[in-house]
């Protein structure tokens, strides 16, 4: 079964093509800067240990143009891996917000699309882009089965005290206002990898996903018990452009005293805050460079970012009543050794001791970066949301087609 997985973001598309049970993708790609000049396409074709990389800079005005470019590379006469789009049997879509309706992976129907659309206001950076990816895939792969895998699904196990807000009950019962949690596919994937690495299925883990969006989860025995994002993907950690936790009084003040309207508040908190608001930069590589050049604002922002993570580590150790490992993952978590160093300072009371030399090692493998006498482990595990999505598509379709 050829499964093409699309992780469609606001300005980028990530994709991988799988033929399970082989977990190594046949090809993968990243299309960045969609809608801007000089969109960048990086397409990789894998054959055993070999990797063939093609990079192209061109103007891609929208997601449709981006996906058509990807399909052009998939079917390219020289480097193509399929002959025609009809060879793709399943397209798996990452959909960030599944709201109340979707507790699990779902075949996409017109009704499912409508529900995804209703959730646009709750995940304004994500659901519209995810939806666009679905519409484009319907045109390019009209014969394929389309499946949605929701970021929110893994957090359906949250106990009620963790998922409820202290608001009048009817806002929950009648309007679904509760914690949903996000990045679930990534938290699930790395938590499973960690439990396997530790040879401990009931492991108590804190998973720390640090990409453009950032979130943490407390996971025990493979079940999510708490997570830092909430009703939408805005609360919790400091992110690239999102504020994370904020006293709601600030919002009233913005509206009543500074003349903001609801859209302006949303834009401020989703697109102009976080590391961008603090430093003028949202990409952690640029921020690290600024710190190296002695930029005090960047240094303070980096401290704020790591302080918030440390605070949640303390909280989640209490939620779990113990700790086997913390797990760093996603773009920043996997690559930024200085950030891991700052987060792991003075966490000895939890039995966490960072090995500074191991922390510097760069690798694409699961690795342990704690000292040998550290009571709890510090792991770096590359996430693979696309592989997890492909597996969930296959599991769903084989269960629905079984006799
Ligand atoms: N070598 C690196 N050092 C520090 N940060 C990095 C490195 N490589 C990638 N990143 C950061 O990872 C973030 C993107 O992570 P990613 O998981 O790809 O996010 P998303 O899926 O939300 O687009 C960016 O802030 C980028 O700067
Ligand atoms: C939910 C979320 O924040 O996703 P991303 O990190 O891809 O922006
Ligand atoms: Mg991501």
TrEMBL record:
NCBIfam families: ackA
Residues annotated for Mg(2+) binding in this entry: 7, 385
DNA repair recorded as keyword: no
Active site positions: 151
Function: Catalyzes the formation of acetyl phosphate from acetate and ATP. Can also catalyze the reverse reaction.
Gene Ontology cellular component terms for the protein in this record: cytoplasm
Signal peptide coordinates: none
Any coiled-coil regions, as ranges: none
Binding site for ATP: 14, 209-213, 283-285, 331-335
UniProt-recorded name of the protein: Acetate kinase
Cofactor note: Mg(2+). Can also accept Mn(2+).
Record's keyword terms, sorted: ATP-binding, Cytoplasm, Kinase, Magnesium, Metal-binding, Nucleotide-binding, Transferase
InterPro entries, sorted: Ac/propionate_kinase, Aliphatic_acid_kin_short-chain, Aliphatic_acid_kinase_CS, ATPase_NBD
Main location (coarse class): cytoplasm
Cofactor(s) required, per the database record: Mg(2+); Mn(2+)
First-level EC class: transferase
Gene Ontology molecular function: any one: ATP binding
BP GO terms, sorted: acetate metabolic process; acetyl-CoA biosynthetic process
E.C. designation(s): 2.7.2.1
Compartments (UniProt record): Cytoplasm
Gene3D superfamilies reported in the protein's UniProt record: 3.30.420.40
Catalytically driven reaction(s): acetate + ATP = acetyl phosphate + ADP
HAMAP family (alphabetical): Acetate_kinase
Site-annotated residues for Transition state stabilizer: 183, 242
Associated pathway: Metabolic intermediate biosynthesis; acetyl-CoA biosynthesis; acetyl-CoA from acetate: step 1/2
Higher taxonomy: Bacteria, Pseudomonadati, Bacteroidota, Cytophagia, Cytophagales
Residues the record lists as binding substrate: 94
């Amino acid at each position: 079964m050829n499964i093409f997985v699309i992780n469609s973001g606001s300005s980028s598309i990530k994709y991988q093509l799988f033929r399970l049970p082989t977990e190594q993708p046949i090809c993968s790609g990243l299309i960045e800067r969609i809608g801007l000049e000089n969109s960048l396409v990086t397409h990789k074709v894998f054959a055993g240990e070999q990797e063939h990389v093609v990079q192209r800079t061109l103007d891609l005005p929208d997601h449709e143009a981006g996906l058509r470019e990807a399909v052009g590379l998939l079917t390219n006469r020289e480097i193509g891996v399929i002959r025609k789009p009809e060879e793709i049997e399943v397209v798996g879509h990452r959909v960030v917000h599944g709201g109340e309706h979707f507790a699990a992976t779902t075949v996409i129907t017109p009704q499912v699309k409508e529900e995804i659309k209703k959730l646009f206001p709750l995940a304004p950076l994500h659901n519209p882009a995810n939806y666009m990816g679905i519409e484009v895939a319907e045109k390019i792969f009209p014969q394929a089965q389309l499946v949605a895998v929701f970021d929110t699904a893994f957090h359906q196990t949250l106990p009620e005290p963790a998922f409820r807000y202290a608001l009048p009950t009817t806002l929950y019962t009648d309007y679904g206002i509760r914690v949903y949690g996000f990045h679930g596919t990534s938290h699930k994937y790395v938590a499973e990898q960690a439990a396997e690495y530790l040879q401990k299925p009931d492991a108590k883990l804190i998973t720390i996903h640090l990409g453009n969006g950032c979130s943490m989860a407390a996971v025990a025995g493979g079940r999510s018990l708490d997570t830092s994002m909430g009703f939408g993907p805005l609360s919790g950690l400091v992110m690239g452009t999102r504020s994370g936790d904020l006293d709601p009084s600030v919002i009233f003040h913005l509206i009543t005293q500074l003349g903001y309207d609801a859209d302006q508040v949303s834009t401020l908190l989703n697109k102009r805050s976080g590391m961008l608001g603090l430093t003028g930069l949202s990409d952690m590589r640029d921020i690290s460079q600024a710190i190296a050049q002695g930029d005090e604002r960047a240094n303070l922002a980096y401290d704020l970012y790591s302080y918030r993570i440390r605070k949640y580590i303390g909280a989640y150790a209490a939620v779990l009543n113990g700790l086997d490992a913390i797990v760093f993952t996603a773009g920043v978590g996997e690559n930024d050794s200085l950030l891991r160093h700052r987060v792991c300072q003075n966490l000895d009371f939890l039995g966490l001791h960072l090995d500074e030399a191991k922390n510097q090692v760069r690798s694409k493998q699961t690795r342990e970066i704690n000292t040998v006498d550290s009571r709890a482990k510090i792991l770096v595990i590359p996430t693979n949301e696309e592989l997890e999505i492909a597996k969930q598509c296959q599991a769903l379709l084989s269960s629905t087609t079984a006799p």
